[in-house]
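May I ask you to comment on the folded chain given beneath this request?
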Amino acid sequence: MQTSTLAPRTESERAFTSPQDFYRRRDFGQKFEATFAFLGKHGGNLYRVLLVPMLVTMAAMAGLFFSVFSSMPTLERGDISSVQLLMVPAFVGLFIVVMLASLATYAMMYAFVKRRMESPDATAPLTVAEVWAEARPNMLPLLGYGFVAAVLVMLGYMLFFLPGAYLTMAMYLLPCVVVFERADLGQTLSRSVGLIRGKWWSTFGLMMVGGIGVFIVSAAVGGVLGLVFGFMGVFSSDAVGTAGFAFVQSVQMALNMALYPVLFLLLMFQYFNLVERRDGISLQWRVQEIGQTPAAGNAASGTDDTLFRPSYGDPTL
């Protein structure tokens, strides 16, 4: 008896190369399973694509860290010399580089997923050029919409606190809305708030568990390195100890940069889950595929993913 291609499968069995593998209802644990299953199949390709923006971000963050760290003794004495004043433009410049490189990292991460699910050849690795071509149009919207969202969140915290906390979780979904839906500012903000309605606590719990996991791994690595350096007597000398402390911080910084994409992939699967619950995207896709001839490359699944045009609940799309 032939098994239906639409029958439920475990996350590890999904190829994550077509929309119906992403737009699905998932419970709390299944979002973690989907994240690690996706990384198991596409993590190598994803991290190769993200390598350059991640390295730029780490280099700029290291520059910021060393700038602040080297200025601390002077600031503690209350003496701000002309050298420190000259460092201010460099500090601001490095901060801007960090923000832009981080923005490029997450724009390219979601663009990678979007291009992966739309690629006609599910087996071909995606190149940096392909992903950047997908991510580039989203950079300005992410920057501008993100700034507006940050202002709204700060106002929410300043006024009543609870609106700020609510908007914080909603705005975590904003990059997904920008990349996958290409909406304008008003639609993006209202969409992010609409998706989180009734699902604030599950999104908060997902962020908490994922964030704690990242913190534990980073702290464990930093703790092990600290113990090793302590037994070696590295911290007994001020000069060598400072270098050792800076090295530990740099390792933790690099590890955090490598782990944060995992956290944002978790949020991405929460986004797909919320869209599916709200709009029934996979049902739309199944309706569209009825009576269609399988496309080349999709004959095994009996579906044509090029027909997938999510309307997000808008019948005019």
